[in-house]
Amino acid sequence: MSVRIIVGAQWGDEGKGKIVDLLSHDADVVARYQGGPNAGHTVCYGDKSFVLHLIPSGILRPGTTCYIGNGVVIDLTALEEERSALTRQGIGVDGRLFVSGSAHLILPDHRLAERHNESGATGPTIGTTGRGIGPAYTDKASRMGLRVADLLDPEIREERVRMLRERTLRLVGRDAPVEPIERVLEGLARDAERLRPMVVNVSLAIASAIHDRKRILLEGAQGTHLDLDHGTYPFVTSSSAVAGGACTGVGVGPTLIDEVIGVAKAYATRVGNGPFPSELSGELAEQLREEGNEYGATTGRPRRCGWFDAVAIRHAARVNGLTQLVITKLDVLDGLPEISVVTAYSINGRRIQEMPESLAELNAAEPILETFPGWRAPTGAARQWDDLPREARRYLDRLEELARVPIRLVSVGSGRDENVRRHANLRSTEAVGR
Ligand code: IMP
After folding, report:
1. Cis, peptide link before residue 234, omega less than 30° from 0
2. CB-ligand 1 contact for 221 (6 Å cutoff)
């Protein structure tokens, strides 16, 4: 038996989809614990590429049972589209995809409310994915949300939808172009019947899997620095993307977690607004964006690109209790003559080693860089640690040292097999000699 959490250590888009798919090879159960259709987990194998938004990436392994936990907010139209797209591509989900009765739903009113908020009418604009995530979680916290279990009950469903509509009209104005409420209710009645066979108590299902000594992966979306509590607030998503969110997001106690695996790119990216101290501009940023195909899997927006930020990773290591780190997209750096890492920040002339909590300080943070010679050689064919160029090994050793978490896997391409595994006792000779 093992329960492992997979969490993003940066600002999302770290390549968690590929890593969950890879680790699902040895998993019986994969459960998503937070976020919603704002996520875009890309998994490639053979000549096929899948982008999953709500359904756990483990669905691509035929023997895996997948759950959408109570911490996720579900857009039923998006779920149905994803389910049909998988079926069309020969991936059957029936009988192995289940949804928590306690998960909250995203309604058309939430998307409308978000458009209103993101127009600047209510506060700072975040640059959200526009999927209604913030308003759905707001209603959950305000105890006004519609849960999957409520959807199945016609009376509660109607009462909630009418109450939410009243609230929406107060927010956006009574002449706003809302979807007629009768149409919303009809659609939800159809959705309820389609969803009914998939609804389970995910906490009980996982407890039973643990009892049966199954191997379980809890899949996070977004990343630590987009976490509502531990991210760069207010430029965050509205859920608990950190490892602690896995416990509340599927209903499993912290004493049952065996491992917390952090995923980070060999550089850094961010989509949307908010502080990003290691951000690059100009040609170098453009090169990373093109080499790494850094465009949002959900919105297509170009991602902001920067160097690996060890301050941000140390923060992620601490708040998640990372037991290991997976580094992705090393190959994107293959052509660079020099590669830098942010080791600390300079804020108003002071050297700062840890992520500041104040937004003003974060905005003022100047990166302190350590620069390495690049390897200028392709890494995509490497499968063993020693296949990597010497400079690449030195770079990874230094990331590990700065992060204070062991690196156990390095991804060097989008394919399932394009990985270098590193055993616990394997350090490159440079690191051992240091
Ligand atoms: P929301 O989650 O749509 O409310 O967006 C809040 C912030 O999180 C915005 O900056 C988004 O760009 C960012 N965000 C949300 N989901 C993802 C993701 O899956 N990857 C990267 N950024 C994301």
Report:
1. yes
2. yes
Query: Domain residue spans in the chain?
Result: 1-100+201-434, 104-195
CB 328 within 8 A of CB 420: no
User: Would you call 423 a catalytic residue per the annotation?
Assistant: no
Q: Are the C-beta atoms of 15 and 411 separated by less than 8 Å?
A: yes
Could you tell me the pTM of the whole model?
0.95
Give the pLDDT confidence score for residue 425 in this predicted structure. 56
Domain at 1-100+201-434, CATH homologous superfamily:
Adenylosuccinate Synthetase, subunit A, domain 1 (3.40.440.10)
Q: Is 132 in the pocket of ligand 1 (CB under 6 A)?
A: no
**CA nearest neighbour of 216 among 62, 59, 30, 433:** 30
Residue with tokens 């590929």: 18
CB 70 near ligand 1, within 6 Å: no
Amino acid at 341: V
Residue owning the nearest CA to atom 20 of ligand 1: 12
CA distances from 187 to 107, 158, 161, 190, 194 (A): 11, 12, 12, 5, 11
Q: Is 7 left (phi over 0), alpha (psi -120 to 50) or beta?
A: beta
Per the CB < 8 A criterion, the answer to whether 69 and 103 are in contact is yes
Specify the pairing of strand 215-219 against strand 104-105: unpaired
Instruction: Using alpha carbons, list the distances in angstroms from residue 121 to 125, 128, 132, 170, 326.
Output: 9, 15, 16, 13, 40
**pLDDT tens digits for 307-341?**
999 999 999 999 999 999 999 999 999 999 999 99
Q: Which residues, given as ranges, of the chain have pLDDT below 50?
A: 428-434
Note the pLDDT of residue 298: 81
Strand runs (DSSP E) across 146-248, as ranges? 199-200, 215-219
CATH classification number, 104-195, choose in 2.40.50.140, 1.10.300.10, 1.10.10.10, 1.10.10.60:
1.10.300.10
